[in-house]
Each structure stands twice: as C-alpha cells, then as structure tokens.
Amino acid sequence: MRDFLKFSPAVSCGLINADSVYPNGSTDLIAEVADSYFRDWASQIDRFVQQFVLQRDSRREDEMETCVEPCQLCGVGNLQKFEIPNSSVLWVCRDCELYQYGEIVDEQAYAGDYHSGYEVHRRGKIRTARIRLNRIRSRLNLSSRPRVLDVGCSIGATLEAARQIGWDAVGVDVSQDAVDYCCQRDLSAQKVDGLRLPFPDNEFDVVVNWHVIEHVADVQATLAEWHRVIRPGGMLVMETPDAASPRVRKRGASYRKFWAPEHTYTFTYQNLKRFIERAGLTVERTPMLGSLFNFNPLLGGYAALYQSYHGLRRLLGIQKAFQIFARKKVMDSATPLLASANPCLDEKVA
Ligand SMILES: [Zn+2]
Is 180 found in the same domain as 324? Predict the structure, then answer.
C-alpha cells in the first residue's frame, strides 16, 4: 500500500484534484476543466489518501493517544498525536487533517538571528515580493494608491517592494529586531505583542502574510482581527506550508525540515479555507500570473517564468506550500462595522 503514495502527487494535488488544482494557481482553463469533470471523485480520492496516511501513522505508534481538547475546526474530539522526533508534538484531526495545539513559543524565539538568514537573500526576496504584489493588484480594481499591511514583515522585503511600485505599506512583527531593521531603511513598521493590531477598522485594501498563520496562538481569533482591519471588498492573501503536499503525506513526521518546532498549526488548503470563510471572507481563485505589463520587459519575463515554474510544481504536487486569496464581503452600509463583530478577540481581551 505504501507504493500507492508514490503516485499521490498526480492523484492528490495534480491532474485530477480540482480542490488542489483550482486554488493553487493553475490557469483558468485547467481549473475550469478540473472543476467540471473531476471535483467529486477527485476529492473522494484525496480524502482516501488523507485517511490512509492518518491510519498508517497511527499504526506506527504502539498505542494511540488521544487529545482531551476538541478539534479547533470541527469542534469534536477526534485528534491523534503527531510527534516529530526530538522536536515538537502536534495533534492532527482525523476528520479535517488540521494539525493543531503545537507549543506556543515565546516571542524571543523570533528575536536576533531568526531573521538574519533572510538578509543575504534580501534582493531576491524583494523581487519575489514585487511579483506577489503584482498578482494581488490584478485582483483589486484600484483607482488610487493601495494601502497594504504586511503581518510578520520580517526584514521588510514586501514593504520595500510595495514602496517601489507606489503602494502605501505598513508592516508589523513580534520581533523588535525585525522592526528596527525596517525602520533603519525608512520603511514603516511597528512591533506588536500579540493578536491585537494597532489600526482602526477597515484601514487596509490588502492584508498579506507569508508563512505567518502557522505560528499564531489562535487561528480563528487571528483571522477575525485581520478581517477587522481590511476594508469591505479588500483582500487577505497568505501563504503557508501545505500538510496535504504529497511529499509531506508520504514522509509524515520524519520530514523534519517541514515541521518547524515553532509552528502551532499546519493546514491544508481545505481546512484553512473553512477557517477563512468562518471569519467572514470569501475565498477566491488564486491568479496564475497577474498582469505583467506593470513590469519592465526583463522583470516581466522573469515574473512569467517564476510563476509558471511554481504553477507547474503545484500541478505536479511537489510544492510544499499553498497560497490563498480571500476577499472581505462588501457589506450593506447600514451593517454595523466590525469593532464589535470580533467575538474571538473580545473573548481573549476579556
Ligand atoms: Zn477537525
């Protein structure tokens, strides 16, 4: 049976799984064909692979330990212990495949050297950030200068890229070192201590975060707070490690490089989508290329190659992270705004 998993890239993430192909940046044509012909039975196969992996991993343990807490998404107690050797422990839900209840690390874990490795690649990161922002711009229908918040801004690559293309960008990070680094480069960044963002409601056209959501203490409360600061019709765009990636499913807990000890969660596209929708946003198709005419020819060519390469990797099921694009609903003007519509946060503060 293990050999079956060798084929799981094509099965669970590639040619026949609409739910994986559709959101992860394939062309519209492929997404629509996959959508029409394969959605139902492909998701059943994906579900089968998920169940097979969970059962296989539970057989590796002599006795199955269960968690007293319920699944944070399903609300029922069907969690299985998932122990990364010499590292951390997570609990995976056998229904929705959400990895959760990882140990919450002190923010000191993100101080000092945590971001220094990124500095070497800063130029490349700025270039990548420009490509990402350009894809987001293709979804915004903006008439004026957009205002963007980068949560977990680190060394400010996204802030720098936003400045280069004329966006108004603000970053927040739990690391004072990262914030100082940004401020030294005249980028707007603020330190935050936790969940609450120091901004009024409906402040931003876009909230972005790259590999941040898997670190937070409470995913639902965090999404509610991000939702609060996005304007109606604005976007939330994020990228996070993919627990449904075939290589991750195949290697399980032994894939040490994938399971960082500071991750409190690891998501699949499907379970993160459910969290986002619960927070009041609508998940949209991830654009493949975005508009390329905003670049000079050289960078435009690079952007097309870069995104095609990553799109192909997603189709083949060898990408280990996914992106998700969501939009805040445009509410009736009579609807009360969100200051009081964040029950998760109110609970925390109380
Ligand atoms: Zn669950």
Answer: yes
Per DSSP, 218 falls in state: -
Residue 223 has pLDDT above 90, yes or no: yes
Within a domain: 39: yes
For residues 184 and 245, membership in a common domain is answered with: yes
Residues 237-246 have a mean pLDDT of: 94
- Give the integer Cα–Cα distance in Å for 1 and 141: 49
Token pair, residue 22, equals 């559709």
**Distance from the CA of 73 to the center of ligand 1, in angstroms?**
5
CA of 77 to the centre of ligand 1 (A): 8
Domains of the chain: total: 3
C-alpha of residue 92 to centroid of ligand 1, in Å? 8
At 122, is the pLDDT very low, low, confident or very high (cuts 50, 70, 90)? confident
Mean pLDDT of 82-97: 92
- The answer to whether position 193 is within a domain reads yes
| Residue recorded with tokens 């000890």 | 261
- 176 with 241, same domain: the answer is yes
pLDDT higher than threshold 90 for residue 299: no
Give me ligand 1 centre to Cα 343, in Å: 21
Distance 65 CA to ligand 1 centre (A): 16
Mean predicted confidence (pLDDT) in 39-65: 61
CA of 262 to the centre of ligand 1 (A): 21
Q: Are residues 71 and 149 in the same domain?
A: no
Same-domain pairing of 291 and 207: yes
> How many angstroms does the Cα of residue 127 sit away from the middle of ligand 1?
37
Q: Which residues of 309-342 are buried (b: 16+ CB within 10 A; e: fewer)?
A: ebbeebbebebbbbbbbbbbeeeeeeeeebeebb
DSSP symbol at 172:
E
Q: Whole-model pTM?
A: 0.77
Q: How far is the CA of 269 from the centre of ligand 1 (A)?
A: 13
Q: Are residues 41 and 178 in the same domain?
A: no
173 shares a domain with 34: no
Position 41 confidence tier, pLDDT thresholds 50, 70, 90? low
Q: What is residue 293's predicted lDDT score, i.e. its pLDDT?
A: 62
Please report whether residue 286 resides in a domain. Answer: yes
Does residue 101 sit in helix, strand or coil? coil
Range of the domain at 38: 3-58
CA of 155 to the centre of ligand 1 (A): 34
Q: What pLDDT sits at residue 268?
A: 95
